[in-house]
Structure of Reverse transcriptase domain-containing protein:
Amino acid sequence: MLKNQIQQLLDDTYDQAYIRMLKSIMNYRFITKKTFEKQLTRAGVDFPYRRIENKAYTNNLRQLGNLLKQGIINLSPKNRIGIPQGTAVSAVLANIYMIQFDYLLADTISKYNGIYRRYSDDFIIVIPQKDM
């Protein structure tokens, strides 16, 4: 649905760069700090890693990549629903996703002489009591 809405919004400028970005952000994987620490500590392999206050950390991204390839560190399955919060484009994508909802709700509310306003994930609906 998000892909279709972006395609409609961008029209002729929608290209492979947008498709790759969407695919990347929508299929993200993660590992929680607690799980990462457990997996590193439990592995007991002979590689250098840092321990700070009884927590284990890799020394660099290459080492992390090697741990992933070796199966010592396991990430979550690829996400198939939603987008992660906090990325540079998350707020923009969320707002694009909400465009159709905004039109539908604003149209419905206007039939009751009301107003609808949304900012990010907050919205307000005001309907005069006499029109309810």
